[in-house]
Specification:
Number of helices: 4
Shape: globular
Largest sheet: 9 strands, antiparallel
Strand content: 35-45%
Helix content: 10-25%
Structural class: alpha+beta
Distance between the termini: 28 Å
Number of strands: 9
Oligomer: single chain
Number of domains: 1
Length: 167
Amino acid sequence: MLLNSGCRKSYSLNEEQSIFFHYEYIKDGQNTAHNGFYIDNEGSVLSYSDPEDWNFHDESLSISKEDLAENLSRCFHSGFMVPDKVLSRYSGYIPNIASSKITAVRNTGTDKGTIRFICYQYDKYSDCYHGTLIRTEGDFTQENLNFYSKKIISWLKDISINIETQQ
């Protein structure tokens, strides 16, 4: 389910930014699943697994601040923290990624589900978070062509693996 939050397209990072990154896995069909994590501005890795009443981002990957706050209230702390220096480095790549081109969607499989790597920029004028796709994997593949994308994808995958092995 996608909701339109009506966000504008003028964005910048600022001190009000609550989250920077989102890793999500969605699988529809017989074995439905929806799980993932956010990384907030304090470096907390906030996980979720099949939450009820989830607010999905719209087609442009935007989500209102209010909807995001509701989602975060349904998350739990994974026990992992990103050090300030690491978070500062990776969040510093967001403007470059947001201004880069993204490849066309390719159908690459069936019934694998979809993993999305997203970074966000908060727009205080519309009170929305605008997401930028870093990569999509699974049934469909799409990739941001920015040089830093591969570094962020590798980093987020490592976090995901650490969360999975902890559970």
